[in-house]
Every structure is written in C-alpha cells, then in structure tokens.
Inverse folding.
C-alpha cells in the first residue's frame, strides 16, 4: 500500500522544492502605487514648495510682530521653554523633505550636460535651503546630509557653519556661471522663475550677497570679497526679479497654498472675527506702535481690527497686544491682527528674496565702502520704495500709492550726517518693516547688527532670562540618533540652547 | 493538471489549486486500487477450511485480516480442529463460529484479539503456541493485581517480541511457557498503565497494575487543530473552556484571558465597547512586529488586524490617529467558542510558522452533535458599566488665576480649566456659562458626564444532526451603549458549523461566520481636539460640567469653556462630532479529511477571513479650533487566505513505539487595501459630504503579501511515558528579495512521565518533566521594503513627487529567527488534590528586522535593518488545589504567576535606542534601549545634587531638567491570577483576583492637571506664595520666592519633569465574580438545563498606586504601552446571565 502513495507525496514535495516556492513573489512585492524612478521636474517642484513652506513661524513673535496670550509652542514672543519643540521643526522638516528631494534631483541629472540649467537651479535651491538652515542652528550636517540611501551614511557629521558658508559660496558661483541659455530648463515645473536662467543667476548672486553680509561681524574681509563678487554678478534690483514661489491657489491641496498664510490662518485667524483666534494670536504692540508712530501706509495693508465682526483698517483703532499676557484679556477683540486680504491671502506668492532686501544690504555695503554704484541714502530709499510696492503682489488691498511712498520717505530720510551706526539703525529699522513677513531674515540681521534694537519681553517664567534667542535648538532626536556628531557640534559651538551664538554671530 | 504535477513544472502560484489537485489525485489512486484492505476493526473475510487445527486457522485469519491473536497456552489445543466455509463474512461472526464450539470467547482490542476460555479448562497446559518442539520450554506464572492488591482478570500478558501471550483468569492468575528464561513480559489492561517486567529467569512474576490517572488522558487541542494527549506534550499549553467567556462576558474574548493563564499578559483597552485587546505571551519578542499572538480558528489562522492601524499615542487631529477601531478577535462571539488553547512556546507554534513566534491562541468553535430533534441553546446577558475611578484633585482652591476667582464671564472663560483661583469658600462667582454659581468644590464631574453604559447580548444556537451530518447554527446580537453619551456599538454574528461524512473514508467540516459590526462615536484619546474626556477630567474644580451643556449654541457652534480652543467642549464632541464605522466580516473554512489507509489520513483545508471596513470621521463646522471642519475616512479591505494540505499518520511502529507523523504544505495570502481620505473646510457649513470639502486628498495603500510553506512533524511515543516531538518548516516570504526569502527552522522536544516510568511514592499521583528547543523564523511584516519608490502627491498645481517612504529600503533583508528553549515540570500530589506546573523558558530573537530610527539628516527617518536582538527569559507557575471535595460541596483553587525578564540586547551598530512613541507634546517617550526591557518609559527628571537638593537655573529660576532617562518599564514583568471556584449543590461561585507588577505608567492627564492647578502637587504656596530652595548649577545655595501670581507659571513648568508623572502601575484587582444557580428544570420536559448567573467584572481594585486614574488605562493595542493619555475612564461591569438549553 505504501508504495502507492509515497511517490505521489514525493512528487508533490519535490515540486515545491524544485520549481521554487516563490514564483511571482517579486511582482507581488512591487508597490503598485509607487514609481521606481525619480521624475526630476516633479520632485524639483516639490522641493521648491517644501523649502518655501519650511518657515520658522515662531520668529514672527521673537521679532515682535505678533504675540499670543498663550505661551504655547509656536509663539516666540515670550521666549518660554515650550518653544523648544517648535524651534527644531525647521531642522526636522528640512532633511527628509526638501533636502532629500533636491539631492534626489541632483543625483539624477548631475551627469547629463544637457540638463545643466536644471542642475544649476537645483544647486542654487539647495544652497538656499541650507543657508536658511545653518542661519537658524549654526553647525549642521551638510556634506554628509541626505546620503542615507545612496551612501548608507546614517550618522552624518555636523559641518562647521564656516565651512558650510565656504561651500555655499562656491556652489552659488559655480551654478551661476554654468547656466547655458541654449539648454533646456525646468520650465513650468520651476515655480520661482519658470525656468528663466537670467533670473536664476540674479537669485544666485543675491543669495551670495545676503550670505556675504552675514559675515560682517566675524570676517569682514571675506564678507567684502563675496559681496563684491555678488554685486558684480548682478542682483535682484527690480520687483520683477523678486525670488518668490508662484502658483499658489485659494482652494485645493494645502501644499499649493501660500505656506505662511495657511499656517497663520490654521493656527489662529481662520475664524476672522477678532475673538475666536485659535491660539490667541494678535499683532504685538511693538510692531503696531512702530507703524502707527511712523504713519506707515503699510499699517492699513497689514493690520485690521474687527469691529462687530468686520475688519477695519483705520489707523486710529489699530492696537497691538502685549506679549506679557498670560491669559485671554477681556478686550481681546480690540487688538490688531493680520489682514485677511493681504498677508493671509492663500494665493499670494511666497517671497524668498526681494528687491527691497538687496537695496537695504547694498545701502550697508555702500556705507562700508564696498559698493559705489549708488549712495547709501538712495539705496535705502529704493529699498523702502521696493518694500512698499511689493505689497501689490498680494492683491488690490496691498497697493500703496507712489504719493504715499514719497511722503513716507520724505519723513524717514537716512540720517546721512549721523554716525554709521545711526544710519545702520535706520536702514535696519526699515528692513524690519520692509522684509516683513520674512522674520527669519530680520532675525539674522538683528543678530548681526543689533537692529532693530528690540527690547526683550521679560515674560514670567521665560527660558532665557528675558533675552532674545540667538539660535534655534537642535531636535532632541539628534541627541539619541546622532549622538557623537551632535556632541561634537555642541562641544565646538557651545551649549545647545537658545542663547548660544553661532559662528557669524560671535 | 495531473501531468503538470508529475512533471514538476507547476508553479507555487496557487497552492490552493495544487492542494486540491493532489487531493483529487489521491482520491483517484485509492479508489482505483482494488482489494484494498482497509483497517476496519471488524473486516469481512472469506474462509473455506476443513478439519484444520484451530491454531492453523487462526494463523490464516491473521494473514487475511491482519489481526493478531493473543491466548494463553492452556486455552487452545492443536487437537481442536475446525471446519468452516464462509464468504465475505464479518470477522467477529467467523470467530464466533470457530471459537464458540470450543467453549472459547474472544474480545477485539486495538489490533489484538484476545481469546480465552469461557470457563478455565481443568486440564493443565499441554498446548504450545509457536515454539519448535525441540526447545526446552520454561514455565512462568504469577498473579496480576490492581493498586489495592485485588486480582485483576482479563489482563493481557505477552512476551515481548513474540506471539506468546495469554490473559489472566478471573482470580488474576496467568501462566505461560517461555522459550527461555529471558525476555520481557508486557501486561496491558484498559484503564491501566502498561507494565513491563523482565523475566530474568524467574518462575513467578507477580504484578501490580497502576491505574491511569484522569489527567493522563487529558486531551488538548494543539497546532493545526490536532488533539493530543496532554501528557505527551513537550511544551506548556493551557486550555480554557468556552463557558469561561460566556457568563462574565467581555465583548472582546481576548480581554477575558486576563489573569487566567500563566505567562499571558492580556489587557482590555479602556476604549469602551467594541474596543481592542492586547495580549502578550511571554513578553514582547520583536522590536518591530505587533508582538501579539496568532489567533487560529479551528486550525486555520484568523486575521486580528485593526483597520487603519492601532491608535497612536499622539496621533494627529485628523480623526484617524487616536481612535481604537477594534481588532479582529473582538468580532468573535464568545457563545460560539468551545474552548481556547494557548500555545505559549515555540515548539507549539512551529507548525504555524513566522506569525506564531509570539505564541498561538487556538479557538475551537462549537460543533453540532448527532441527536434526536433539534437542540436549542439560548444565552442572554445584560451588563451595566460604571466608571471606576474619579480623579482625586485638590479641592482647596477653586477656578481662577493668580489666586483670584473669576467675577466676569470672560474671566471664567479665560480660566475655564485652571484652578489657580481663590480659596474655595462657598461664596459666589461667575462661571463660564455667565451665571453666578457657588464657589464650591464639584467632585462628581466624571460621574455626571459619563452615564451608565449597557451591554445586551443574546445568542440563539441550534444544534443537531445524525451520524452522517451534524450542524450548529448560531445567531447573536450584541448592543452596547458606552458610558460616553451617544457612543454605541452593535455586533451581529451568524455562525454555521457543519461536520459530516461521505462514505466511510471521507469526512468534511465547514465553518461560515458572518459579522456586521457598527460603531458610532468611538472615543478618542490623546490630544485635546475632539477628545471628549478633557472636559470632565480637567474642568476647573468649582465648575459643574453640567453648566457646559449642551456644548453648542443655537447656530450649532461650539460654546467655549476655556481659553484654549483646542480643548473642545466635551458636550460639543459627543453631540456634534460624528464618527461611525461599519465592518462586514466573513470567515469561511472548508476542510476534507480522507482516510487513505489505516492510520493514514490526508486533510485539505481552505480558509478565508475577509473584512470590509468603512470609517468616517467628521469634525463639524462650528468647532472653535477648526471652524470650517475636517473630514477623514478610511475604506479598508482585508483578506487572509490559507490553503493547507496535510498527511497524518498515527499508529504503532512496534508494541513499544507509537508514531504520529504529519507532513504538509501551506500557502498564505494577505491582501490589505486601504484608501485614506482626508479633507478640510466644509464649503457649505454643517453639510457633511466629501463633495462639500474645499480640500480633499486620498492616499491608497495596497499591500499584498504571501508565505508559502512546507512542514513536517513527528511525535514519537515510547510505552506511554516517553515522548519525542520533532518539527521542521521551510517558509518562503514574499516580502524579501529572492536571494534571502526562505528559511528552514526546526524544533525538538521531549516529555517524560516519571510517574508512569517509575514507582514513585504514593503521595505523588503524577509527575512529568518536559523540555524543548524550537526555532521560528519570520519575514518582513510589510511589503515593498526592499526597493525605494517615488510617489506622486496630490497637487492643485504642477505635478509633484517625492520618495514614497521615509524609511530606507533594504534589499539585503533576511528572515529573523526566534529561538525558544523551555523546560518544565508537572506534578499532581495527594491523589490529584494538589497540582503544580512549572515552566522555565528563554526566548531569544536574533536578526530581528528593525525599523531603526535614524537621524533625519540622512534624508530619511528610518532604516530597516536585520540587527535586533531581544531576550525574554521567564518562569511560569501554576498551582492547583482542591481543598474540599464532597458530594455537595467542592472548592478548587488555582493560582498562576509568571515573571518575564525582557532585555533588548542589540539594536544596531552604534545605536542604543529607538523611539517607539511619544506622548502629546513629547512630555514622555517609549523607547527600546539596549540593556533595558522592551518599551521603556523615557523622560526627564528634575535635577538633584548629591545631597538631594533641587538644582536651579539661576537665570530662569526654574529647576534644571536632566537629559532623557529611563523612568520605568512600560510592560509588566509580573502577572498573576488566583481563582477560587466553589460549588454547593446547585450553586457555583467563581472568584478571580489578578494582578500585574513591576511596570510604570506615565500620565498625560496628571501633567495637565498640574499645569492647570488641579493636581494636589500644586497646593504648596497657594496661601501667600512659595519659597523654593536648592542649589544653583554651580552648587551655591539658591532661594527664590514665587508670589501667588507666579505659581501658575511655576507649576506649569512641571511638565518639563517627566518623572513627576510616572507612577507605579502595579495593581491587584478583583477581576471577576460569577455566582451561578442551576435552575431545577428537570421536571420541565422541553428544557434540558438552565442556569442563571450574577456576574461582575473589574469589581474592585484592591491595590493600586495611581490616585487619579486606573493603572490599566490603556488606549492602544500597539506595542507602545505605558501611557495614560486622557482616554475613556475604565469601568466596572455588573450583569446577569441566563443560559437555557432545550
């Protein structure tokens, strides 16, 4: 009997063994919802959107534009410890998103000479992303960053800020020089310039000037060298060349909405009645008082007070809220908050680097004698003009008339007879208003120049002893996951807290 | 098809069809084979002899019918001759015809027919069996008695390895002629242990037979549904009968395992009816997997997934993260369960492969039985639930800030959940509702907000059938109202079980179960948005939660109750938030068993567990924090299909050796399709449709995985006291690359029944030792992890794309292995009145596939590596006793206790910890840390100097925070349970007390209660300010005075010190009481039996160290345990159960 069945069993078992019991497994283990290849254009667009969206919103509070009665994370006006979790968000977000994306794009196209314009734009964008990051944290992983998949580097070393700066300059210069008008571009996938290589070049040199001026405290010679190179290369000196992300929409996916407007709306102002602000946010008294005192036409563009649920831009009733409050004041509704028709417009462009900023920086360069193409006073006035005009990009409610601009300038001349310091203060007071809402840029120039001379808010229980932040903290996960390199960076740079000064801020 | 199989060219693409093909083939072969002798105990034979000696006739029958005869030398004489002519007659008839005239009788045993004299013949032996005449024959004789010394007639006595045999006479005597003075005599008798005696030249050999104790024939269900004699098992297995689940009912059967089985750490989640369970057997074994056991129904694997994933500890506010949506086991109706076996060790599980690495819970469902008419079972249970614990807050200072009470509505709203106000004095104040109320402590907000929950279950089952077909059909309805208003759960199940025979060789079984589960407003835990529990638990202590009713105004918009709009008004949540889900589930199984020849069967089974799940969550328009609303939906299809073919051999190799062998193949396929849709902003307010969302995005997940397996096992038994089990399995995993996708793993185990092998002191009724070593391997649990992919993202502009996963894929992944070594001893003492069962085990997981968190600066957040190493060592003990046993009264005690020491040995090169979960706002983490146990609670402490002084930061005036430190174990190493069962006449009382020790729990609620001034910890300084002293960071003495107005901020900062909110989570609970009365229904003709029971679950917490919440306040069935996270409070259940059988 046994003879009759054993062969069958044997055959059955052998079939298993011989024909491979894993046929079809590879096909089964292929994700039907993913492509194995990178599409450089699609991923570049994503890198632009993610890079732009990674804004350090809490600096709006730190730079005393906004505040809240809550000491929740995300409002930097009170310098409380709970800011820690928000302070590392830019770091946490950047690497797996825009940095991973831009490195994927660069790896895909870097060896193809036909794609040189795509490569240059990608290199400039990468430099922009890293410049933002290092200016917040100081030393950060740079040369080994984003190489987890390609090189199995799971613990990237932290590069010194100085060496990162050196490489950023090199990258910007090489990328700007490599553009070839005859070759293909990203075209519409490039939300910043639609593939315009001339404008990309200006963006590269403008970024170079921005980073060069950062070094005025720590290394004036290098600052001068790179500032001059940047100026020679050609800067953004026209509102038409402003580096900004375009193509945002009012309805649709969140990623396609102006990231700052979306963040402010969602975190606070969506109800638009002046009272039900989700996290209790308002404009800070410092900012509103300054606009009012200067009779700044931007007050009406930026700020509203809700009267019976209707937004009112009348200058007289605008009122900023104190950062010292610990619970909701009963007159909460009477404080000013951002205008839904300008900075909270979801389809407004997101400004990265502006004509106004370049003019203010050039004014300083002129004061230092690094630039002679125009006087500091003229550049300063160009800066104010550009800053006021750029609100037009936010729609009709942002229009400031030439007459208003000239009147404002008339009463806010650069004190050319005063000290350099007094002139710098004037320039950077205007910078504070002029590049708003780019609070990160203001945070950088504040640390570098000391202007605007903000008076720190000494909120009860703050974490800095009433001092304004000098940097953001690294993510706590780095202490866990990249401990040696984290420790090396801290040993080099100083304690991982809000008051440690980074290389160019010493 | 047949040709394909024979030529070996088929693929494994569809094992199910192969199984059936092979099966049909087998059927063919055996139906073609003629003259098959089928081992019927009473086969038909044909015989035509004339005047042949009876011994010769028997020899012929022996050849024809393959039966052995045993007879004493004095029974048969070769001088007795036989003439018979029969054709195709039953053996029993033929034997009767032969033996009756010779005044002989016979009895048919298993394989052996014993022939003996009807009356002992008076002549002395002359007969010879099969001994050659020239040999010198040596006689041996003796008496066989039982344990008490009484003679035992009818005992079969046989010389080992020969056909020389006899049976004892009515006075227990026997005599035999042996060829020489050596050899061994075997004594067998039904119900007694087999005895072997060496002859050793003796002429007299008396034997005392030992009765088999009842435990020895205890049959348990083991892997693949095979029933085995418990004493032969080389590993620990615990069986619980279905009635344990039906009386004191938990909606989720797995919750009822709590405290019942040593080594099983079961926790029902505190998420209301329809919630999940978490069961861990012998510790968490893998750094990555769910670590829950494999559930198996009637031998086939069942799905236990939670659609959309387990609740996360800090999920987003999109309405899909923090909800416990129920697991697979929660869909099983307790009334359909016949028994549950828990297979703890690797040997037990080896046959189920990878997924059994964490143990197996085998559920055997009730079957029909042959009977006249239809049997009807009716079971009805009604339970009520009440909250067990109300927080013990401070009631000295009431609502307000800076030591003042609110006197306007806006002040009341600003301090709606702050109790930093004035001393509670019974004066009046203005509350959040704008009205004047007495400034007095309100202590019963929790009891007011949560109502009495109810659960009503009815099951009706019909059973019946005949010899060829039996059936059982049950229908059940469970209707539950949670303690949370407007939160309900309904489960309907229909279960049909068929068993039958087709002819004499083929039997079949089939099971079909269909479930419909509907839930509304399942509670969330974690962060405040949409979490209804924040309001009753954290409202200021002088506000009555009733004042916040109904939570919405005339326009349907949320009424605020505090100044943080993220903390949604709990009444608004229960009245206006909408969550509903529906699960349709079908479990189907069909199996055919074919008896090939005697002792050899083939079995083919196909099973499919399929569900379709729809979940919708609407955060309504008018919510303060998200005024335009949000939408989330999950649509999931999940199917697990298994095809299994086994060949089973069961029989004797020799008289001493028995063999049970099994070989087979299994093909497992899983499909999980999920469409996750999220949206924001209902364009038209209060109109909740996906068509009305201004932003909407859907993300598909389509996971397909497969495991093909071949396996074999052999159980070898020697003389019913020595057993050896060997298994081997080869798996192929679809989730790994072809180079690394297969693994073979073996197991070996043995058990030795000392009490059967040796004569032990009388006090020991039974003793057994067992030991085993087993390996189990597993592939990557998730598909698509070996290649990197890029996915397009929803965009309202230019197309955008990014890398699909932030996990670095790894093509070199290999299967991981889990190796268990276990040894145990079982003993019964004092005539089975006292029992002990001890097990020691060591379970080591190596090459574990780990989703290792890596620095985000790599561009990714995780990498998947084969590096983990994890140890679980433990001891399990079960003590049983019967202090009293009389006709009317009995008392049984059972105590189980287990300790599991878990150690994370290795994570990855240079990496010493992985984060598994973080609490809301990252106040605490659950990490796996090298050298610590799985799931450590990690957080910061308030820094102290060597003499215990608090170290202050002189700049901020706040105590310094340490770095992250391990603050405790999230999983209890100690578990125990003690049950007492009393029976007095028709009453039974069963009491279960259980406990867990050694673990900690971090309380998010206590963090907020401290920040908000509810915690007693915040009392110092309320009366005039607080002076804190300590040292500065440089060691100098430090003193600071904090005015009353600074207390709120000072205590708020306590959130920075995790250790203040980490508590000992050990507890002892009176888990279950059942008082039953068997109704006297014998006189009612239609009713067979009826019983009514008063039941209670979680009646009393005898010991705990958490003042404000229940230590079992778990809200997720994920591996991250050890957080309390402002979930639904735990409840006490009291109910009534009625069982009637017609």
């Amino acid at each position: 009997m046994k003879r009759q069945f054993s062969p069958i069993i044997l055959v059955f078992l052998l079939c298993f063994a011989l024909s491979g019991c894993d046929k079809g497994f590879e096909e089964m283990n292929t994700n039907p919802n993913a492509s194995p290849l990178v599409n450089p254009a699609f991923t570049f667009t994503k890198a632009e959107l993610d890079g732009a969206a990674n804004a350090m919103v809490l600096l709006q509070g730190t730079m005393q534009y906004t505040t809240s009665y809550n000491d929740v994370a995300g409002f930097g006006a009170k310098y409380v410890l709970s800011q820690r979790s928000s302070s590392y968000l830019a770091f946490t977000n950047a690497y797996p998103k825009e940095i991973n994306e831009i490195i994927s794009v660069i790896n895909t196209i870097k060896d193809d000479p036909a794609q040189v314009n795509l490569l240059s734009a990608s290199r400039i964008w990468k430099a922009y992303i890293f410049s933002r990051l290092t200016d917040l944290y100081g030393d950060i992983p740079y040369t080994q960053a984003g190489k987890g998949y390609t090189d199995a580097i799971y613990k990237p070393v932290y590069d010194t800020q100085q060496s990162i700066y050196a490489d950023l300059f090199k990258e910007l210069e090489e990328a700007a020089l490599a553009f070839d008008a005859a070759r293909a571009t990203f075209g519409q996938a490039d939300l910043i310039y639609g593939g315009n290589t001339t404008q990309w070049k200006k963006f590269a040199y403008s970024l170079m000037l921005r980073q060069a001026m950062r070094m005025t405290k720590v290394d004036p010679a290098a600052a001068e060298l790179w500032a001059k190179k940047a100026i020679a290369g050609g800067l953004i000196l026209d509102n038409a060349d402003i580096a900004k992300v375009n193509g945002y929409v009012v309805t649709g996916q969140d990623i396609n909405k102006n990231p700052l407007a979306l963040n402010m709306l969602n975190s606070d102002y969506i109800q638009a009645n002046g009272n039900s602000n989700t996290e209790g946010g308002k404009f800070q008294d410092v900012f509103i008082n300054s606009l009012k005192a200067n009779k700044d036409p931007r007050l009406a563009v930026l700020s509203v007070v809700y009267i019976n649920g209707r937004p009112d831009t009348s200058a007289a009733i605008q009122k900023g809220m104190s950062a010292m409050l610990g619970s909701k004041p009963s007159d909460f509704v009477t404080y000013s908050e951002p205008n839904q028709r300008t900075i909270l417009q979801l389809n407004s462009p997101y400004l990265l680097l502006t004509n106004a900023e370049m003019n203010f920086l050039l004014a300083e360069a002129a004061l230092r004698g690094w630039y002679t193409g125009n006087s500091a006073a003229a550049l300063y006035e160009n800066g104010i003009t550009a800053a006021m005009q750029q609100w037009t990009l936010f729609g009709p409610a942002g229009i400031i008339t030439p007459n208003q601009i000239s009147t404002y300038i008339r009463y806010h001349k650069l004190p050319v007879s005063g000290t350099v310091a007094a002139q710098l203060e004037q320039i950077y007071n205007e910078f504070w208003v002029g590049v708003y809402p780019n609070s990160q840029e203001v945070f950088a120039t504040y640390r570098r120049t000391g202007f605007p001379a903000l008076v720190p808010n000494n909120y009860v229980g703050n974490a800095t002893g009433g001092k304004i932040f000098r940097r953001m903290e690294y993510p706590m996960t780095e202490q866990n996951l990249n401990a040696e390199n984290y420790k090396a960076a801290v040993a080099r740079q100083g304690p991982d807290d809000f008051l440690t000064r980074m290389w160019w801020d010493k | 098809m047949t040709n394909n199989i024979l030529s070996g060219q088929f693929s494994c693409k569809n094992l199910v069809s192969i199984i059936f093909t092979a099966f049909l083939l087998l059927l063919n072969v055996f139906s073609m084979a003629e003259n098959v002798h089928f081992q019927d105990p009473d086969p038909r034979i044909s015989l035509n002899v004339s005047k042949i000696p009876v011994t010769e006739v028997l020899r012929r029958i022996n050849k024809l019918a393959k039966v052995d005869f045993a007879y004493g030398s004095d029974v048969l004489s070769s001088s007795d001759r036989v003439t018979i002519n029969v054709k195709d007659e039953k053996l029993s008839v033929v034997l009767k015809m032969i033996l009756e005239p010779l005044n002989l009788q016979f009895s048919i045993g298993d394989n052996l027919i014993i022939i003996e004299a009807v009356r002992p013949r008076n002549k002395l032996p002359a007969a010879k069996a099969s001994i050659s005449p020239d040999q010198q024959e040596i006689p041996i004789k003796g008496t066989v008695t039982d344990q008490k010394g009484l003679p035992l007639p009818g005992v079969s006595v046989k010389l080992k390895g020969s056909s020389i045999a006899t049976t004892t006479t009515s006075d227990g005597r026997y005599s035999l002629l042996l060829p020489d003075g050596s050899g061994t005599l075997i004594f067998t008798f039904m119900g007694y242990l087999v005895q072997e005696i060496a002859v050793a030249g003796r002429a007299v050999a008396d034997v005392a037979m030992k009765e088999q104790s009842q435990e020895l024939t205890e049959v348990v269900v083991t892997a693949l549904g095979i029933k085995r004699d418990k004493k032969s098992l080389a590993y620990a297995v615990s069986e619980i009968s279905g009635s344990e689940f039906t009386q004191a009912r938990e909606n989720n059967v797995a919750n009822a395992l709590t405290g019942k089985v040593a080594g099983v750490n079961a926790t029902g989640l505190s998420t209301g009816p329809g919630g999940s369970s978490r069961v861990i057997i012998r510790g968490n074994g893998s750094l990555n997997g769910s670590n829950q056991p494999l559930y198996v129904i009637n031998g086939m694997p069942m799905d236990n997934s939670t659609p959309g994933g387990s609740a996360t500890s800090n999920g987003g506010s999109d309405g899909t993260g923090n909800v416990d949506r129920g697991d697979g086991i929660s869909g099983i109706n307790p009334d359909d369960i016949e028994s549950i076996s828990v297979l703890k060790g690797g040997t037990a599980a080896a046959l189920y492969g990878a997924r059994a690495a964490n143990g197996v819970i085998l559920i055997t469902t009730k079957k029909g039985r042959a009977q006249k008419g239809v049997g009807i079972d009716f079971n009805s249970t009604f339970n009520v639930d009440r909250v067990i614990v109300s927080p013990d807050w401070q009631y000295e200072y009431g609502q307000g800030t800076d030591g003042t009470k609110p006197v306007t509505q806006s002040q009341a709203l600003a301090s709606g959940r702050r109790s930093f106000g004035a001393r509670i004095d019974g004066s009046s104040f203005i509350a959040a509702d704008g009205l004047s109320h007495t400034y007095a402590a309100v202590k019963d907000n929790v009891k007011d907000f949560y109502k009495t929950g109810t659960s009503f279950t009815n099951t009706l089952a019909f059973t019946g059938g005949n010899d060829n077909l039996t059936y059982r059909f049950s229908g059940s309805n469970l209707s539950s109202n949670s303690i949370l208003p407007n939160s309900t759960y309904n489960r309907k199940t229909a279960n049909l079980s068929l068993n039958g025979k087709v002819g004499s060789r083929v039997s079949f079984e089939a099971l079909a179960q269909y479930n419909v589960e509907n839930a509304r407003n399942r509670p969330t835990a974690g962060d405040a948005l949409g979490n209804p529990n924040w309001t009753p638990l954290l409202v200021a202590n002088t506000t009555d939660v009733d004042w916040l009713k109904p939570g919405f105004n005339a326009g349907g918009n949320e009424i605020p109750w505090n100044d943080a709009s993220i903390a949604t008004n709990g009444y608004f949540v229960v009245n206006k938030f909408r969550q509903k889900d529906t699960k349709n589930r079908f479990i189907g199984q069909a199996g055919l068993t074919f008896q090939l020849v005697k002792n050899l069967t083939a079995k083919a089974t196909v099973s499919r567990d399929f569900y379709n799940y729809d979940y919708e969550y609407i955060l309504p328009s008018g919510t303060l924090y998200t005024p335009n609303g949000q939408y989330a939906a999950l649509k999931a299809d999940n199917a697990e299909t298994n095809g299994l073919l086994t060949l089973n051999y069961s029989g004797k190799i020799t008289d001493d050796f028995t063999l049970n062998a099994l070989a087979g193949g299994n093909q497992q396929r899983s499909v999980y399709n999920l469409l996750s849709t999220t949206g924001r902003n209902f364009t038209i307010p209060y109109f909740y449709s996906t068509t009305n969302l201004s932003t909407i995005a859907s993300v598909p997940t389509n996971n397909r995985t497969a495991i093909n397996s071949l396996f074999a096992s052999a159980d070898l038994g020697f003389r019913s006291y020595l057993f050896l089990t060997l298994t081997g399995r080869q798996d192929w995993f679809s989730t790994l690359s072809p180079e690394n996708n297969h693994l073979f793993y073996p197991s070996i185990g043995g058990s030795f029944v000392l009490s059967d092998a040796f004569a032990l002191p009388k006090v020991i009724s039974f003793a057994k030792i067992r030991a085993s070593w087993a390996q189990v391997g597993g592939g990557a649990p998730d598909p698509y992890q070996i290649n990197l992919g890029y996915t397009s993202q929803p965009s309202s502009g230019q197309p955008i794309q990014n890398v699909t996963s932030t996990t670095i894929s790894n093509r070199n992944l290999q299967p991981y292995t889990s190796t268990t070594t276990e040894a145990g001893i079982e003993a019964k003492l004092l005539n089975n009145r006292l029992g002990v069962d001890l097990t020691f085990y060591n379970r080591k997981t190596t090459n574990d596939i780990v989703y290792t968190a890596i620095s985000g600066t790599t561009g990714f957040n995780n990498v998947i590596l084969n590096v983990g190493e994890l140890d679980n060592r433990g001891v399990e003990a079960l003590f049983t006793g019967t202090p009293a046993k009389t006709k009317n009264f009995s008392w049984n005690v059972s105590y189980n206790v287990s300790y599991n020491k878990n150690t994370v040995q290795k994570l990855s090169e240079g990496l010493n910890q992985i984060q598994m979960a973080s609490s809301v706002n990252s106040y605490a983490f659950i990490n796996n840390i090298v050298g610590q146990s799985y799931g450590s609670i990690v957080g910061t402490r308030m820094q102290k100097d060597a003499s215990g002084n608090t170290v202050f930061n002189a700049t901020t005036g706040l105590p310094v925070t340490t770095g992250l430190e391990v603050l405790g174990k999230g999983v209890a190493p100690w578990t125990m349970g003690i049950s007492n069962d009393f029976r007095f006449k028709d009453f039974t009382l069963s009491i279960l007390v259980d406990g867990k020790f050694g673990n900690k729990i971090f309380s998010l609620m206590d963090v907020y209660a401290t920040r908000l001034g509810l915690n007693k910890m915040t009392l110092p300084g309320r009366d005039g300010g607080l002076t804190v002293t300590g040292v500065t960071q440089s060691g100098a003495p430090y003193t600071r005075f904090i005015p009353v107005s600074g207390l709120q901020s000072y205590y708020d900062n306590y959130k920075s010190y995790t250790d203040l909110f980490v508590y000992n989570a050990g507890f002892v609970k009176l888990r279950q009481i059942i008082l039953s009365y068997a109704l006297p229904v014998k006189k009612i003709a239609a009713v067979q039996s009826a019983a009514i029971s008063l039941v209670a679950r979680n009646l009393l917490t005898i010991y705990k160290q958490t003042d404000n919440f229940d230590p079992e306040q778990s809200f997720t069935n994920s591996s991250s345990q050890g957080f309390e996270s402002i979930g639904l409070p735990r409840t006490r259940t009291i109910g009534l159960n009625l069982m009637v059988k017609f």
The two ends of chain B are 50 Å apart (CA to CA).
